[in-house]
Amino acid sequence: MRRAAIRLVVCLSILSCVSSIQAQLPAGWTSIDVGGPAAAGSAQYQAATDSWTIKGDGTGIMGTSDQFRYVYKELTGNGELVARVASIDPPVTDYSMAGVMIRVVPNMAGSPFIFMGVSVNSDTRDHGVMLFYRTTVSGVALVESTGTMTAPYWVKVTRTGDTFAGSVSPDGKTWTEMGSDTAAGIPAKVYIGYAVTSNVGGKLVTAVFDKGPATASEPVPADKAI
């Protein structure tokens, strides 16, 4: 009887911790691991500083399937997500990344998506900011990359009708579109949020996003993005 009581207390304690972690996310937001990474990620929102701290593992956001941590909410119709990637730590690899994403099916590893992110880029090569997108289920993700910059840096993903775009900015005011694609047949309801991957299976990186969570809503002028 005593052992059963102890087990019950432990279970209730675990459930309480899980509920506490979930309660730290704003209403409407969900945090999951996509693609079964070896190490479990996590997410916390700090209302006092208006920032997110997200831990993510995974082999990356690329190829025909993805592994990463995704923190998202529903988006119906046009909208955008704007955020500053304040930091990515530790520098597990040059291609550890954090950014913003629109995804058709949040928990499907091969889902169509668009991702605009910042890499660790410790080798200071031409991949400081990276745009990935996949237009068909389990299709090969295409990539555009440029620059030797790294965090802190601003990123944005936008949906306007069937057109999806990714943009970057050094200050949240002056934006450069990295690329866009028109994909007919994408449902009105998709999922928009933050994505983090270490790009090395079994190792976590921690990314901090501030000025968030940005609202998934009608696009606003770039000079009002902050």
Question: Can you characterise this structure?
Answer:
This protein has 226 residues and is mostly beta strands. The protein has one domain (27-224): Jelly Rolls (Sandwich). The protein contains 1 helix and 15 strands; from the N terminus they run αβββββββββββββββ. It has one helix at residues 2-23, and strands at residues 30-34, 42-46, 51-56, 60-62, 65-76, 79-89, 97-103, 113-119, 129-134, 142-146, 153-160, 163-169, 176-182, 189-197, 205-210. The strands form 2 sheets. Strands 1, 4, 5, 7, 8, 9, 10 and 14 form an 8-stranded antiparallel β-sheet that branches. A 7-stranded antiparallel β-sheet has the order 2-3-15-6-11-12-13, with no helix packed on it. A hairpin with a 7-residue loop joins strand 9 and strand 10 (142-146). Mean pLDDT is 85; it is low at 1-23 and 212-226.
